[in-house]
Amino acid sequence: MRIEIQNFTTFSIDKSFVEAVLQKTYEIERKKGIMEISVSFVEKKTMEAVEEKSGKVNHEADVLTFEASRNARFYPLSDAVYLGEIVVCPFVVMKRAGKQGMRFKRELAHVLVHGMLHLFGYRHEDNPKEAERMHKKEEVIMDLCVV
Fold this sequence. Notes:
By secondary structure, the protein is of the alpha/beta class. Helix content is 48%, strand content 19%. The protein has one domain: Collagenase (Catalytic Domain) (3-Layer(aba) Sandwich). It is built from five helices and four strands; from the N terminus they run βαβαββααα. Helix 1 (15-28) links the parallel strand 1 and strand 2 (34-41).
């Protein structure tokens, strides 16, 4: 799996940790072939602008996921399948972690796993059964990440 990580914030991001969490999710899902994703860490104002432009208004989102369209997934000059992008606002992740009494790294791992599962096709927005299935999968992965 190929992971491109960009940090557009003043927040210090442990890229090896991000890669490890996403790689573990990929392995647990037993995906085949070479896949590529992008992860961008953005400031709060940028996240708000992305939410507004995308129509995904979530009132202080910590993570947004954008799947590549089916037609755009294959690079003609590459052996990788591009799945899409995970956009994370570490400032909101930190705030939520504090409210829930957990460490930043654990909450960051959770939003990364959540975003990755969306790129793999999991949905929770309008289907309670699918939401429960996704939640259980997140718990399994988080337990194996041991964060």
